[in-house]
What we know:
The structure holds two protein chains of two kinds.
Chain A: E1 4-5, E2 10-14, E3 19-25, E4 32-38, E5 45-51, E6 56-59, E7 62-67, E8 72-77, E9 86-93, E10 103-105, E11 109-114
Parallel strand pairs in A: 2-11
Antiparallel strand pairs in A: 1-3, 3-8, 4-5, 4-9, 6-7, 7-8, 9-10, 9-11
Chain B: E1 4-6, E2 10-13, E3 19-25, E4 31-38, E5 42-49, E6 56-57, E7 64-70, E8 73-78, E9 87-94, E10 104-105, E11 109-113
Parallel strand pairs in B: 2-11
Antiparallel strand pairs in B: 1-3, 3-8, 4-5, 4-9, 5-6, 7-8, 9-10, 9-11
Amino acid sequence: DQQVKQNSPSLSVQEGRISILNCDYTNSMFDYFLWYKKYPAEGPTFLISISSIKDKNEDGRFTVFLNKSAKHLSLHIVPSQPGDSAVYFCAASEGFTGANSKLTFGKGITLSVRP
Amino acid sequence: DVKVTQSSRYLVKRTGEKVFLECVQDMDHENMFWYRQDPGLGLRLIYFSYDVKMKEKGDIPEGYSVSREKKERFSLILESASTNQTSMYLCASSFAGSQGDEQYFGPGTRLTVT
């Protein structure tokens, strides 16, 4: 059973517009959420994260929103740039130490930003 | 900068061979992880280790084993490679107890089993 779901496999947006990538989770023990970005033939790189005690975290063009009651988070990219075209993975964690250190990833969303 | 290196970018092995994938990190991270990435399935955790000689099964450990004799090195072993283990293998590492559990990934090894 998938605990982190990214139901849309792909998204295409025009350069300069907003990209909204969605993620849902089922495990109520998750308390930290992260977004990773992956280019072809490279490992994923960390993008932005949010703790369950917050509902919003912002870093430049990237903002992550968390709705705990709905078990839903979203990544907003404004404005979108062609270099943002990549696969984006949502991930979640139950804790930071020992056996809880692992992340659970979604299947990923392929974002294409059209010039 | 954190650096996670993997022994090979591309590997071709035959069915039944024993395969070793090596991963080394240079940031004194306690945690190390092995994932595989397949189209439409995302990143799936095979095994992880939160200390030397400690290992925990991930979501898909069948057909794999791991070894962590030194803090900086984490090896993934395919005891008898099969064609369904053809995949991209990604190693990652992170600090224990760090805010955010940010994992740093290596470039990946594309393994083909024929």
